[in-house]
Write a structure and sequence with these properties.
This protein is of the alpha+beta class and about 950 residues long. Helix content is about 30%, strand content about 25%. The chain contains 21 helices and 37 strands. The strands form 9 sheets. It has an 8-stranded antiparallel β-sheet with strand order 10-9-11-12-23-22-20-21, sandwiched between helices. Strands 3-4-5-6-8-7 form a 6-stranded mixed β-sheet. Strand 16 and strand 17 form a beta hairpin. Helix 9 runs antiparallel to helix 10 and helix 9 packs across helix 11.
């Protein structure tokens, strides 16, 4: 940096004339050319000597060795292997990201997560929350892939990345010490992914290790693990393949001594099993934290404890004296909005009184006497104190500065922070000592519940669920596969969800005006929790082939809105006619510790169905969803140092009783769910066809499926390689028409079947094409149209005529050969009998014979015949006509006629117009020269 500055300011060894004298002097000390030269500026002797003396403390000349010296020492690398479950994870630091406060890589198998922690140099304005931001990103290159979008790079965070950001943030935030206001950022990337070892639990552990190694002041080391239940065995950090068989997906984070966060989903798992899983996870976390503390002792950085700035203790006393009585009255107001306004008015009153008494300075926290600036100020030098009345060498008068600190005043932000803490203290004291909550309920009492279904007439299903001052409007929409949610993630670039719940929390639900935009991280997290809670009760895709979307809009909020979405979503699914397996309810549990400040011993008091204020001022937010038999989803956040298993056991037991009460109230819904498909819901018909027939439905380039949709007016056709076909329509008529067409296209005709009143669609010189079913045609050759000889098909039939036909053959390509003559009475039985007993000898003569089977004889390129005893030659795929020759001369003409017969590579036989041609042409699908066959009857 110094070299760059000198080179830009001193060109060719000369100082820049644009720089001031002081800067010129400093720069000449950095230029070797001027090391022995004298300054060219002019000052009086006194000021020159003083100037030189002042700067001599800060600047020295750099010699050539200083400028050209380089550092060659390599970075020191620290690593440790930590046992987790049945394998080890590798933690490394010191070799990447050395300019960050801390940077670590955590490796499990071939999955590598890289995490950094950085803090701003200057603290931000004090606030009631820790300024922490977490960003997690999965690089597609980690799995050897790239994004499916146009930009071919990772963009905004996807929903599952947002969920992992929350998993990282929630356990770390309670461990941050109060009073630290330097903005902190945690960045986490997945640089390698092997498809077996999930990166989310690794990211939580990597973030906890990075925070422990950095200067960021925190109370303890945090780590995270995933627990699966495979059979009856709990597995720590199971692989993705093992998770496919797991009945539980639990992610747990905590410290060596307590649990900070759990989140997971299961299929009606009993509370006892969940507690066992938590215990296994806590043991795994404890082992990781012990190893990390050993690593911190080796290479951890000193914590920035001196940066912690807490409000003065005297301020707490002042606020309690001014607002104590008012807080007791305000916290007894049951309604949220009036209580909030009363507390806001009380806060303004406290601020006004302290300001009038001179305790609050709105501009600055400290009042510092203004010094008289010197001519040449330098903040790094030691200022010289001169006795009053004397002057220094430069005749510059300097007034003495007092060394006593000025009185500390309270800032406006400090007053607001302290008022909030005092309010929480009074709320907790009221619950612990009085046994009553803000709205007058007992600790285990549930708020009043009412619900109604069918609120929106045009929606496929709707429900309004109200619990106290929390209200959710749930709406269900049914659709086909086109409505499914596509996910672009690291594992499967084309993953599809047939059920998803989207949660919306507008600012109006809390009586505020705010910005509306993309879903917040909180909305994504709450929506996923409610979605996973309802997923176990959904029917299988085979029994209910719809894509299901649930929208939960929070219209009022005073705590536990995500659990209201679970209750409302369950009722809306029933109202939409989805055959769910049962009902699901959700409840949010809270906790207040009877701490020493209330005269207690720390005994926890568990609260059922908490409100917003109890969530903010309490010590726990534990959401549990399920029915009376088991749990389907859960999420717990802790605002204190953590909780123990006995506390969690008590909370789960109380939550089970609460769910039973809520389910009982949901059963009283008025009006009740309709439990039948809405008339506005689409109709979906699932049919099974032969897998090889699917291409007939699609057609070339999708032309056939498009024509079916246009012709019938249905919404869509979804085909699968296994032969499953789903037809989506808005009305029954269009659905039945499409079913008829597809059935006809994919039907498997059986030789010998008779089709009545079939329409002739087109006529060719060699026969007529007859539609035996919608979209399915066959060729009735001219020889099979009539018992009499016909020169042209047009002589007896025209397009649009209806005839009865019999299927006499289906070739390898699925082409149909029809016969009308087979259904007509035989006009000359004796002649027919005679012809049926004749056969051809090897020399071409005709001899009477009654064959058991129809046999084919192959004509060579020279016209001679060869015996072929096969019933059906493989090369044959079309017929022209069969004859019964009576003269050997007629047979000798055979090869010549067949040889001159035109054909096409596509297999369509071009007739020469001679209706008496006594042969048919077989052809191969690969376009080779066709062979000529004789049919002997």
């Amino acid at each position: 940096m110094l070299m760059n500055s000198s080179s830009s300011s001193c060109l060719y060894g000369r100082p820049s004339p644009l720089l001031p004298h002081a800067n010129r002097c400093k720069l000449t000390h950095l230029c070797p050319t001027f090391l022995n030269s004298k300054p060219t500026y002019s000052l009086n002797s006194t000021r020159t000597s003083r100037f030189t003396r002042r700067n001599s403390f800060r600047i020295r000349a750099l010699d050539s060795s200083d400028v050209l010296q380089t550092t060659t020492e390599s970075p020191q690398r620290f690593s440790v292997q930590i046992p987790v479950g049945d394998r080890h994870i590798l933690v490394e630091t010191g070799h990447m990201g050395r300019q960050a406060s801390a940077a670590v890589t955590v490796t499990d198998g071939e999955t590598i997560v890289y995490t950094t922690v950085c803090m701003s140099d200057v603290p931000s304005e004090p606030s009631d929350f820790f300024p922490l931001s977490v960003h997690y990103q999965e690089r597609f290159s980690a799995a050897g892939k790239t994004s499916g979008g146009f930009f071919k790079r990772e963009g905004r965070a996807k929903d599952h990345e947002v969920l992992i950001c929350r998993l990282i943030d929630r356990p770390l935030r309670p461990t941050m010490l109060k009073g630290f206001y330097h903005e902190t950022q945690i960045l986490s990337w997945v640089f390698s992914y092997d498809g077996l070892h999930s990166p989310d639990s690794l990211a939580v552990t990597a973030a906890g290790i990075a925070v422990a190694l950095s200067e960021l002041p925190s109370s303890d080391v945090v780590a995270g693990v995933r627990i699966g239940l495979i059979g009856d065995k709990f597995v720590v950090n199971p692989t993705t393949k093992e998770m496919e068989q797991s009945k539980l997906d639990l992610l747990l984070a905590g410290t060596e001594s307590a649990i900070l966060m759990i989140e997971g989903y299961c299929d009606f798992l009993p509370e006892e099993k969940l507690l066992q899983a938590v215990e296994v996870g806590q043991e795994a976390v404890r082992a990781i934290c012990k190893e990390v503390k050993t690593l911190v002792k080796k290479c951890g950085k000193p914590k920035m404890l001196d940066a912690i700035k807490l409000p003065p203790p005297e301020l707490y006393q002042f606020v309690e004296e001014i607002a104590g009585d008012g807080l007791v009255k305000a916290l007894q107001i049951k309604k949220k909005i009036p209580r909030r306004k009363a507390l806001s008015s009380l806060e303004d009153n406290v601020l006004t009184i302290l300001t009038e008494e001179g305790y609050v300075n709105k501009d600055e926290t400290f009042v510092v006497a203004e010094p008289v600036p010197g001519v040449f100020e330098d903040e790094d030098e030691d200022e010289e104190i001169v006795v009053d009345g004397e002057v220094d060498e430069g005749d510059v008068h300097i007034k003495p500065v007092s060394k006593r600190p000025t009185p500390l005043l309270f800032s406006e932000v400090d007053v607001k922070l302290v008022f909030k803490e005092v309010t929480s203290k009074y709320l907790r004291k009221r619950i612990v000592e009085g046994g009553k909550r803000s709205d007058g309920r007992t600790p285990d009492e549930i708020r009043v519940i009412n619900s109604q279904c069918g609120l929106l007439p045009r929606a496929h299903g709707s429900a309004l669920f109200t619990r106290g001052e929390t209200q959710a409007l749930a709406v269900v929409t049914l659709g086909d596969k086109q409505m499914a949610q596509r996910i672009d993630n690291l594992v499967d670039l084309d993953d599809v969800k047939r059920f998803y719940l989207q949660y919306c929390f507008p600012p109006s639900c809390v009586g505020e005006a705010g910005r509306m935009g993309a879903p917040s991280r909180r909305e994504v997290g709450h929506g996923m929790l409610a979605e996973r809670a309802l997923e176990p009760i959904l029917p299988s895709e085979e029994s209910f082939p719809y894509t299901v979307r649930v929208e939960s809009t929070i219209t009022e909020s005073n705590g536990s809105s995500s659990m209201a979405s679970v209750c409302g979503g369950c009722l809306a699914l029933q109202d939409a006619g989805v055959p769910v397996k049962g009902s699901i309810a959700g409840i949010a549990m809270g906790m207040v510790l009877d701490t020493k400040e209330f005269g207690g011993d720390g005994t926890p008091l568990i609260l059922s169905d908490i409100t917003g204020s109890e969530d903010a001022s309490g010590d726990m937010d534990f959401k549990v969803a399920g029915n009376e038999h088991g749990i389907t989803a859960f999420q717990m956040d802790i605002k204190v140092g953590g909780i123990t298993l006995p506390i969690m056991k008590q909370a789960l037991s109380q939550a089970k009783d609460g769910r039973k009460q809520i389910l009982a109230e949901m059963s009283k819904c008025s009006p009740p769910p309709s439990k039948s498909l809405s008339e506005y819901a689409p109709l979906i018909h699932v049919m099974k066809v032969k897998a090889s027939k699917v291409n007939l439905i699609i057609g070339s380039g999708g032309k056939k499926v498009k024509s079916i949709i246009e012709e019938t007016g249905i919404e869509g056709i979804d085909t699968h390689d296994n032969g499953i076909v789903k037809i989506t329509a808005r009305d029954q008529a269009s659905l039945e028409k499409a079913i008829s067409i597809i059935s006809s296209l994919t039907m498997v005709p059986v030789v010998g079947e008779i089709y009545r009143n079939c329409e002739i669609k087109s006529i060719a010189p060699y026969g007529a094409f007859v539609e035996i079913a919608p979209g399915r045609e066959g060729l009735c050759h001219i020889s099979e149209l009539s018992a009499d000889w016909l020169a042209k098909a047009e002589d007896a039939f025209k397009v649009g005529d209806h005839v009865d036909v019999k299927l006499i053959e289906v070739n390898e390509k699925g082409q149909l050969r029809l016969s009308r003559k087979a259904l007509l009475p035989d006009p000359d039985p004796e002649k027919s009998e005679k012809n049926s007993t004749s056969s051809l000898n090897k020399d071409g003569s005709v001899s009477p014979k009654t064959p058991d089977k129809v046999k084919f004889k192959k004509a060579s390129s020279t016209g001679s015949l060869a015996d072929a005893n096969a019933e059906h030659p493989k090369e044959k795929s079309a017929y022209v006509r069969s004859i019964s020759p009576t003269k050997s001369s007629d047979v000798k003409k055979l090869s010549g006629i067949a040889k001159d017969r035109p054909y096409t590579k596509k297999g369509k036989i071009e007739d020469s117009g001679r209706g008496a041609d006594p042969c048919f042409v077989g052809f191969r699908s690969n376009g080779e020269q066709p062979e000529r066959w004789l049919m002997i009857t």
